[in-house]
Amino acid sequence: MIDELADKSSGLSFERDGGGRLSSRPYAPTTRQVREVRVPTLDKLQLAGAFYVPTGKPPYRVAVLVGGEGPQDRTGLGMLSQLADRLADSGIAVLVCDKRGVRPSQGDFGKYTLQTAVEDLNSELDYLILRSDIDTDHIYVVGYDGGGVVATACASANPYVSACVFMATPTVRLFPELARHKVEEAAAAGQIDAADVKFIQAQIDGLVQIVDTFNSDLVDVLGHQMFLGWMRGYMDHEQLAAAAALDVPVLVMQGAADTTVTPDQAASLMATLQARGRGGQELAMFKGLDHQFGPQVGEAEAKPYRAHPAVAQEVLDRLAGWLKGR
């Protein structure tokens, strides 16, 4: 039985790698004062990051940015750099780090889990609290895509978070539900055929069964070590339950044309937040915008030479305006 499951789950679609250095920066920030920082983690590693110094005088209000899935650096494939630039220009400091295992951050991305991500985000918050130039009553967390899941899990328990922004954040589990949805989305776009869909769905089924079969996060299957912790963490996480535990204002930002994290998920998130009975939640729905909140800039136009999203100005302005209003 295990042999069969291992065979089903051996495809490249769900391999975890060790991170590493990205080959180029997909977006160059224009803010003049961006300082290199090192953030100590709970397990005595260091995360490399950038601290965007805003206009104005300290103590600064500050936002911590959390990117989506995968071994991303501090630019968040161009998304986070644009957010950081706009926030710093509006007077809000920004901290954004390379994920652990993405050099020069230390650690092993191959063993990265939801719990690890939450612990690292808590470490970033601890780092800010100890700085003398931060207004600790105004610390915000902005999560994009899967980063919103990390932000929710952190902010529901960390008393120093004073507001959250969730951008295109799924309410279904990232694994296996969102993984299945992405397969269906690719099929609908004509990127894969019916045979591919059947094969990949079998992979997902096999991985779920392996996680359910073993209690350990690291198992040996047919002579190959398989790390199950990242899947187990997302399978155990209930995003709406975590959102219900939030006791801070929340801005939900959603592209109306998003087919990856669909608008109905933003509606579910808003309903959960409204049920808290505390107020302070807002929904910003952007007509015609997709999962990346703007058109893709191709490699020919991008500087320096990697495609990245060009976040719509209305999105940047709404984010900065809402946080400034806190």
Which CATH C-level class of the largest domain is it?
Alpha Beta
* Order of the strands making up the biggest sheet: 1-2-4-3-5-6-9-10
- The chain-level mean pLDDT equals 88
- The total count of helices amounts to 10
Question: What would the keywords be for this entry?
Answer:
single chain; 326 residues; alpha/beta; Rossmann fold; 2 domains; eight-stranded mixed sheet; two-stranded antiparallel sheet; 10 helices; 12 strands; globular
Structure description:
Helix 9 links the parallel strand 9 and strand 10. The N terminus is likely disordered. This protein is globular. It has ten helices and twelve strands. The protein folds into two domains: 65 residues, no CATH class; 242 residues, 3-Layer(aba) Sandwich (Rossmann fold), CATH 3.40.50.
List the helices and strands and how they pair.
Blueprint: H1 2-8, E1 34-40, E2 46-52, E3 60-66, H2 79-89, E4 93-97, H3 114-129, E5 134-144, H4 146-155, E6 163-167, H5 174-188, H6 194-213, E7 218-221, E8 224-227, H7 229-236, H8 239-244, E9 250-255, H9 263-274, E10 281-286, E11 296-297, E12 308-309, H10 313-324
Parallel strand pairs: 3-4, 3-5, 5-6, 6-9, 9-10
Antiparallel strand pairs: 1-2, 2-4, 7-8, 11-12
